[in-house]
Amino acid sequence: MAILGQNNEVVSAFSRGNPFDKLLRSYDEFNSIGEPLYKAERAKKHYKMSVKAYESGLKVKELYGEHRIPLSVIRKRLLESNRTYEVISSILRENEVILITKEEAGTMDGALNKGGLGLRSVMPDDGKCRLEIAQILIAPATMLNKL
Prior knowledge:
Elements: H1 8-15, H2 18-26, E1 48-49, H3 51-56, E2 64-67, H4 71-80, H5 85-93, E3 97-100, H6 102-109, H7 130-133
Parallel strand pairs: 1-3
Antiparallel strand pairs: 2-3
């Protein structure tokens, strides 16, 4: 968060590189004691899961970790904010990962001309949640999961 609290020139330069992407992704890739979650079975205890992913019995490596809000939107919100600690924390908390099936990801992220909803890097125009538009429901048994 200290990097995001720097002046506009520093943040602007940093935001053009891969480290900025890594910063956003690393926020939710570890649990509260620092264990990695990406593609690890322990992710099922920390991430919420769609009903289909939960019921599928698939290993985490076979599922798709989808950010509730696209990273491009999170990035834009961070850069356009006043970047106080409270604002940065609030925006990063929205950076939640949900485990879904690859088919669900294809529906939500896929191009409109290929039968998808085209929501890979944008939010729906009506302000609704991307998951809701894609009719992806969260499994009740995972609702309390957290990092």
